């Protein structure tokens, strides 16, 4: 089943890629309309939008999902329900397809809800308490975004149709359209895990690694970015855009900082995804939607590769994910480590790899833009943090001696996984240059002074240097310091956001519920009501039974007394 799905998705992906090139070069857009129901004056129409952007994004989603399914053939080989897993992944991809090709908010909601539902099923795939908690947090946090989208649909009724694409330019300064823009932006922020909705993204790491590779590269978390790319006119040059710029900048900074205090291999890569989503949101809110889309595609390639390599390492290390238990992996798994390093360098923006073309262009455009110093600082400092945690990740896992059990058999003999990784490594090397030549047909001249031109390189080198210092130098005194402990707690727990969004909301309501149960349900209402009444009736019936059973004289006296009372009552009447 895995092989058949892989070939099918891969062939469709290549065809869609060729179609997207043709549509892009000839500036073609196709609308396909299918009238589902026509009753009196009402008609329900299903609309599909094919342009270069939707076709290219679909092609990349299908390419990554085909390789992920092929990778799962070996990674999930011990799972007896592997066919169910593959079907869930295919449903996930289908929901994403529906979202991508929809210019209509109703059909977008179908894909959007499909992503939320199937992601819950995939997060709880390994049935344990941690997975259930993570799945519930993911599902409930995404429901907030679904509500915002439903409200946006309700407001779209004012225009007579759900197809937003017809009204965006025409009603740009309309108050109702601005409200729809706010609702869509809020929905996109929940799906793409921007502050204050960030806590679900690292929790979703409870899913199997192939799912993480798919979710964190091209599907679930990018749905919000893609929706905002379609609604980019409403965000740009408005208060919403400024708010989004600030929130995305803080998300990027927070996740980059948190990744430097994390020791879970998958969580570091998840926080790295969050950082890159913040970067996309920032450049999108500044009005450069093509740049955001460009970075979305290049990021999908190397992030999927990064997760696949992490999965291969975890698979070989008997499901250990702690960085401190790794070390010297280059000696045992040279091919996997090569792919891992290529993906890491692409993430850092190493020249002529996929990430370089998008990240460097974004940072140079930012240097030319009219933004304040704080936002500029967030852009560049967060980029430095990316290099910092990437180098720390490589240092802990690749160098030194193996810190795990000596009985572990580490090798590179998982050929099915390696083939998937090598395919994505090839795309991570050539993908950036290919896309930059295609999307930006006329190269733009970026003229900057020397110190700004070299700022990106300087920030990356400094980030790498600090990453080496954090990893290599013994932080004995810092670890003993209480101040450092609180800093690491604050940064490592994503600024206490998971505690606020889970314990913070649930704790007080549960305490109030417990007080109500103790004082009312099991307290006064029990004492004054049903339980007390029941006890009294039991007592009186026992007393009556005792009287009747044990003493005939008392029983006869009571009987005579009862007859006298009845007689007196009759005489009085």
UniProtKB/TrEMBL annotation:
<feature type="transmembrane region" description="Helical">
    <location>
        <begin position="82"/>
        <end position="101"/>
    </location>
</feature>
<dbReference type="InterPro" id="IPR001516">
    <property type="entry name" value="Proton_antipo_N"/>
</dbReference>
<feature type="transmembrane region" description="Helical">
    <location>
        <begin position="213"/>
        <end position="233"/>
    </location>
</feature>
<keyword id="KW-0812">Transmembrane</keyword>
<dbReference type="Pfam" id="PF00662">
    <property type="entry name" value="Proton_antipo_N"/>
</dbReference>
<dbReference type="GO" id="GO:0042773">
    <property type="term" value="P:ATP synthesis coupled electron transport"/>
</dbReference>
<keyword id="KW-0249">Electron transport</keyword>
<feature type="domain" description="NADH:quinone oxidoreductase/Mrp antiporter transmembrane">
    <location>
        <begin position="102"/>
        <end position="386"/>
    </location>
</feature>
<feature type="transmembrane region" description="Helical">
    <location>
        <begin position="44"/>
        <end position="70"/>
    </location>
</feature>
<keyword id="KW-1133">Transmembrane helix</keyword>
<keyword id="KW-0813">Transport</keyword>
<dbReference type="InterPro" id="IPR001750">
    <property type="entry name" value="ND/Mrp_TM"/>
</dbReference>
<feature type="domain" description="NADH dehydrogenase subunit 5 C-terminal">
    <location>
        <begin position="389"/>
        <end position="569"/>
    </location>
</feature>
<dbReference type="InterPro" id="IPR010934">
    <property type="entry name" value="NADH_DH_su5_C"/>
</dbReference>
<dbReference type="GO" id="GO:0005743">
    <property type="term" value="C:mitochondrial inner membrane"/>
</dbReference>
<keyword id="KW-0830">Ubiquinone</keyword>
<keyword id="KW-0520">NAD</keyword>
<comment type="function">
    <text>Core subunit of the mitochondrial membrane respiratory chain NADH dehydrogenase (Complex I) which catalyzes electron transfer from NADH through the respiratory chain, using ubiquinone as an electron acceptor. Essential for the catalytic activity and assembly of complex I.</text>
</comment>
<feature type="transmembrane region" description="Helical">
    <location>
        <begin position="292"/>
        <end position="314"/>
    </location>
</feature>
<dbReference type="Pfam" id="PF06455">
    <property type="entry name" value="NADH5_C"/>
</dbReference>
<feature type="transmembrane region" description="Helical">
    <location>
        <begin position="452"/>
        <end position="477"/>
    </location>
</feature>
<feature type="transmembrane region" description="Helical">
    <location>
        <begin position="484"/>
        <end position="506"/>
    </location>
</feature>
<keyword id="KW-0496">Mitochondrion</keyword>
<protein>
    <recommendedName>
        <fullName>NADH-ubiquinone oxidoreductase chain 5</fullName>
        <ecNumber>7.1.1.2</ecNumber>
    </recommendedName>
</protein>
<feature type="transmembrane region" description="Helical">
    <location>
        <begin position="7"/>
        <end position="32"/>
    </location>
</feature>
<feature type="transmembrane region" description="Helical">
    <location>
        <begin position="268"/>
        <end position="286"/>
    </location>
</feature>
<feature type="transmembrane region" description="Helical">
    <location>
        <begin position="374"/>
        <end position="395"/>
    </location>
</feature>
<comment type="function">
    <text>Core subunit of the mitochondrial membrane respiratory chain NADH dehydrogenase (Complex I) that is believed to belong to the minimal assembly required for catalysis. Complex I functions in the transfer of electrons from NADH to the respiratory chain. The immediate electron acceptor for the enzyme is believed to be ubiquinone.</text>
</comment>
<feature type="transmembrane region" description="Helical">
    <location>
        <begin position="179"/>
        <end position="201"/>
    </location>
</feature>
<dbReference type="Pfam" id="PF00361">
    <property type="entry name" value="Proton_antipo_M"/>
</dbReference>
<feature type="domain" description="NADH-Ubiquinone oxidoreductase (complex I) chain 5 N-terminal">
    <location>
        <begin position="37"/>
        <end position="85"/>
    </location>
</feature>
<feature type="transmembrane region" description="Helical">
    <location>
        <begin position="554"/>
        <end position="572"/>
    </location>
</feature>
<keyword id="KW-0472">Membrane</keyword>
<feature type="transmembrane region" description="Helical">
    <location>
        <begin position="147"/>
        <end position="167"/>
    </location>
</feature>
<keyword id="KW-1278">Translocase</keyword>
<dbReference type="GO" id="GO:0015990">
    <property type="term" value="P:electron transport coupled proton transport"/>
</dbReference>
<keyword id="KW-0999">Mitochondrion inner membrane</keyword>
<dbReference type="InterPro" id="IPR003945">
    <property type="entry name" value="NU5C-like"/>
</dbReference>
<comment type="similarity">
    <text>Belongs to the complex I subunit 5 family.</text>
</comment>
<feature type="transmembrane region" description="Helical">
    <location>
        <begin position="326"/>
        <end position="354"/>
    </location>
</feature>
<feature type="transmembrane region" description="Helical">
    <location>
        <begin position="239"/>
        <end position="261"/>
    </location>
</feature>
<feature type="transmembrane region" description="Helical">
    <location>
        <begin position="416"/>
        <end position="440"/>
    </location>
</feature>
């Amino acid at each position: 089943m895995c092989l058949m799905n892989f070939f099918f998705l891969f062939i469709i992906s290549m065809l869609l890629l060729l179609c997207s090139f043709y549509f892009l070069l000839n500036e073609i857009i196709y609308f396909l309309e299918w009238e589902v129901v026509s009753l009196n004056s009402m008609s329900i129409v299903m609309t599909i939008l094919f342009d270069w952007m939707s076709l290219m994004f679909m092609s990349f989603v299908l390419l990554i999902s085909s390789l992920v399914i092929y990778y799962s053939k070996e990674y999930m080989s011990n799972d007896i329900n592997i066919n169910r897993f593959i079907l869930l992944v295919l449903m996930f991809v289908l929901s994403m397809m529906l979202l991508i090709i929809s210019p209509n908010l109703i059909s977008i909601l179908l894909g959007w809800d499909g992503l939320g539902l199937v992601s819950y099923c995939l997060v709880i795939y390994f049935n344990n308490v941690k997975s259930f908690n993570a799945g519930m947090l993911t599902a409930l946090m995404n429901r907030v975004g679904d509500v915002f989208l439903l409200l946006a649909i309700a407001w779209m009724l004012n225009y007579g149709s759900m197809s937003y694409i017809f009204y965006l330019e025409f009603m740009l300064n309309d108050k109702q359209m601005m409200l729809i823009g706010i609702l869509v932006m809020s929905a996109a922020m929940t799906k793409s895990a921007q502050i204050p909705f960030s806590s679900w993204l690292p929790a979703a790491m409870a899913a199997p690694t192939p799912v993480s590779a798919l979710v964190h590269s091209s599907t679930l978390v990018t749905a919000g970015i893609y929706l905002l790319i379609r609604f980019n006119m409403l965000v740009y040059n408005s208060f919403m855009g400024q708010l989004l710029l600030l929130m995305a900048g803080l998300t990027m900074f927070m996740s980059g900082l948190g990744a430097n205090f994390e020791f879970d291999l998958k969580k570091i890569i998840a926080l790295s995804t969050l950082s890159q989503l913040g970067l996309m949101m920032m450049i999108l809110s500044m009005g450069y939607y093509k740049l955001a889309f460009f970075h979305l595609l290049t990021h999908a390639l190397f992030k999927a590769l990064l997760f696949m390599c992490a999965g291969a390492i975890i698979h070989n290390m008997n499901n250990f994910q702690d960085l401190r238990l790794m070390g010297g992996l280059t000696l045992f798994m040279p091919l996997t480590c090569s792919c891992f390093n290529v993906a890491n360098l692409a993430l850092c923006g190493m020249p002529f790899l996929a990430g370089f073309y998008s990240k460097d262009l974004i940072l140079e455009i930012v240097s030319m833009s009219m933004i304040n110093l704080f936002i500029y600082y967030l852009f560049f400092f967060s980029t430095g943090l990316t290099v910092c945690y990437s180098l720390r990740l490589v240092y802990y896992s690749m160098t030194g001696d193996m810190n795990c059990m000596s009985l572990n058999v580490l090798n590179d003999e998982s050929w099915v996984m390696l083939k998937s990784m090598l395919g994505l490594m090839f795309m991570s090397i050539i993908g950036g240059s290919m896309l930059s030549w295609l999307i930006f047909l006329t190269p733009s001249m970026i003229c900057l002074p020397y110190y700004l031109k070299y700022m990106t390189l300087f920030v990356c080198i400094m980030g790498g240097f600090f990453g080496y210092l954090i990893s290599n130098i013994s932080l004995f005194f810092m670890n003993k310091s209480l101040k450092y402990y609180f800093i690491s707690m604050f940064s490592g727990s994503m600024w206490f956001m998971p505690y606020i969004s889970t314990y913070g909301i649930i704790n007080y309501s549960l305490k109030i519920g417990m007080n109500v149960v103790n004082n009312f349900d099991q307290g006064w209402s029990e004492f004054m009501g049903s339980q007390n009444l029941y006890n009294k009736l039991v007592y009186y019936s026992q007393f009556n039974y005792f009287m009747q059973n044990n003493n005939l004289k008392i029983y006869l006296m009571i009987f005579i007394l009862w007859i006298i009372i009845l007689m007196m009552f009759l005489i009085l009447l």
